Amino acid sequence: MYQIDLNCDLGESFGAYTLGNDAAILDYVTSANIACGFHAGDPTVMKKTVELALEKEVKIGAHPGLPDLVGFGRRNMAIAPEDAKNIVIYQLGALQAFTKALGGQVEHVKPHGALYNMAAKDARLAEAIAEAVYAVDPSLVLYGLAGSELITAGKRIGLQTANEVFADRTYQQDGSLTPRTQPHAMIETDEEAVRQVMIMVKEGHVQTQQQTNFALDAHTVCIHGDGAHALTFAKYIHETLTNNQIDVTAYR
């Protein structure tokens, strides 16, 4: 039996703006990456999302991003490693406080958006993020793109790491995700997205846009909670993986 964690970025509403269907999606995922207020989310949304995750027994993770509400944390910033370390500590601390107050525990950290993609390639930035997580709680799991600098940095400092793969994104031959600004960055059909995941989990590789195979070891699959058909896809991927002898369960 193969095994995979399904994680989803949640808690991305803000003030009067509601994004996604968090309560329903939590029925189909095993880990929740909760926005911590910098790229999305606010204190009330964080509290509510933690409550929902605890109610549905879904593992809670911090999803720290760049301080860019307007750009949803998806725009690169020239951030110094020390500043990156501090904003991760700040955001992780905020989510830990809510989770502890509600009787739960933060299990993992997954950087968001541009911070995640920058750290996948920038060794110094990756090291700063890993140091931040380790300084707050060395028992936390660091989620990062499979084969990335972030995974390397996490292992080097002594963190448990989880290799993340993506259902709805295409890959480049170096194992990086195709930037959203480029054509064909997203996989458009549910069937193709799930087929890609099954190959990554069972065969240990992904086909890149350059028609090469990039080897990887998949521990957790990211699905996005803000798409028009996010709930339908969450249900579909959970059911299809289970029906194909893949056990959908939390990473630890």
Automatic annotation (TrEMBL):
It catalyses: 5-oxo-L-proline + ATP + 2 H2O = L-glutamate + ADP + phosphate + H(+). Keywords: ATP-binding, Hydrolase, Nucleotide-binding. It comes from the Bacteria. Its EC number is 3.5.2.9. It holds the Pfam family LamB_YcsF. One of its GO terms (molecular function) is 5-oxoprolinase (ATP-hydrolyzing) activity. One of its GO terms (biological process) is carbohydrate metabolic process. SUPFAM superfamilies: Glycoside hydrolase/deacetylase. Forms a complex composed of PxpA, PxpB and PxpC. Catalyzes the cleavage of 5-oxoproline to form L-glutamate coupled to the hydrolysis of ATP to ADP and inorganic phosphate. Belongs to the LamB/PxpA family. HAMAP family: PxpA. This is 5-oxoprolinase subunit A. The lineage of its organism: Bacteria, Bacillati, Bacillota, Bacilli, Bacillales.
